[in-house]
Design a protein that fits this description.
Oligomer: homodimer
Helix content of chain A: over 70%
Number of helices of chain A: 13
Radius of gyration of chain A: 22 Å
Largest interface: A-B, 57 and 57 residues
Structural class of chain A: mainly alpha
Distance between the termini of chain A: 88 Å
Chain lengths: ~220, ~220
DNA sequence: AATTGATTTAATCATTTGATTAAAATTTTT
DNA sequence: AAAAATTTTAATCAAATGATTAAATCAATT
């Protein structure tokens, strides 16, 4: 029966069980607040096994962290370089990709933000490797459209801040947002689905709204 | 000399020194990653003093947390109830208040978000005590303006998500945003100052852009 | 100056926690 | 089936850490 079980149930390897448990706990509670014993228990294995497979808590964390980060950044890097799509199409794809991804991994963004704050240099290499948005096709398009008078010229900083702020922030601020707007989990998900359609519309509105001149010093 | 020093230099009390050190470290590194010994060292006092004044790490943390949270939420609660100002004025005031406040306390939002995730129930009471935005004057105004056809009707959830996302998120995502847009600290601050003017304009654009009808199931 | 109360320190405790070790159990290979 | 390699466990170690204690110092009051 044990052999049959091995073959039929196709139980995931111990290493994978540990990684899954570690991902869950690290992502939820952060490095310092996660105990190796908790990971072991969550994975249904002995504490020593964790160190047998991964040498140390830190090494295990590093692995999880990098996998998380890669996944997170891929959402943007795939679309931002595509030379065949229009500005509007790119925005739509990015927003949809992020909302879908974060609906499945709601704890990720806060985890990433914490990790980056605690260790900016380690992330640096990874970002530069995966995406250099400043040289992306999307930003070139925006610059050209701005010069051609087709949209209101925008600084890349503001554009990114708006795109990411409207798309990712609701997941980061979910608990506050829910309480403040009196919305339950189900409703929250529904709203986020709506935002797939709305955020691109709003970003377009922003890009086509003329900016009033800055008021001068005279009254 | 010791008496003169006491009077002239007006050295802050030990209790205040501990609280200041605790606020700095807790806000920067979170509860679990902060050692009571580090707080003591940062405050220039002995470890035992910390427990003498505050009984325990947890008690000290609770105090800091609540003070932080109150400060954070005040930025919105003051303006959101004002019955004399227009929608546009309220938005402008809220955005300016938050950007000014977070420029001085850049670590706060991430700290708050972490704390809320880790302990939603404790925050609940505080939120309900300080603000119930759902009954705020601002949302009433938005609802009325929507019915009167003066703006595109918006759901409070989306409005809050956009306002907060565009205003607070840049501070939370500062490290990522800076790296991705290749912006240094000084430039970042300048951009955030710009956003005091821009975000209200953009929010207005969002509120006045008609939403295209949802495409039906037919092709 | 002496007494009293508040503040501060050094030393120590007890628990938690990451990590290791040696042995047992299991699986794979011969 | 025996031997070898791999995987798993129980027990234990050492360091870190939150907390306590008893004594020393300082400040205020008499």
């Amino acid at each position: 029966m044990s052999k049959a079980k091995k073959i039929e149930e196709k139980e995931e390897s111990t290493e994978e069980k540990i990684k899954a448990a570690a991902k869950k706990l690290f992502t939820q509670k952060g490095f310092a607040a996660t105990r190796t014993r908790d990971i072991a228990e969550e994975a249904g294995i002995n504490l020593a096994l964790l160190n047998y497979y991964f040498r140390s808590k830190q090494k295990l964390y590093d692995i999880i962290m990098m996998e998380n980060f890669r996944q997170f950044i891929q959402g943007i890097s795939v679309n931002v370089y595509d030379e065949k799509t229009s500005i509007q199409e790119k925005i739509e794809k990015i927003v949809i990709a992020y909302i879908d991804f974060l609906t499945l991994n709601p704890h990720l963004p806060l985890f990433i933000l914490n990790e980056i704050k605690g260790n900016p240099s380690r992330i640096a290499a990874q970002v530069n490797e995966d995406v250099s948005p400043m040289r992306s096709h999307l930003l070139k398009q925006l610059e050209e459209a701005g010069k051609a008078g087709k949209i209101t010229p925008v600084d890349p900083f503001h554009f990114m801040a708006n795109l990411v702020g409207m798309t990712i922030f609701p997941f980061v601020g979910k608990p506050i947002l829910q309480r403040v707007t009196n919305v339950n989990d189900e409703q929250f998900s529904a709203y986020m689905q709506e935002r797939k359609r709305l955020v691109p519309i709003w970003l377009k509105a922003i890009l086509t709204t003329p900016l009033p001149p800055i008021p001068g010093p005279e009254d």
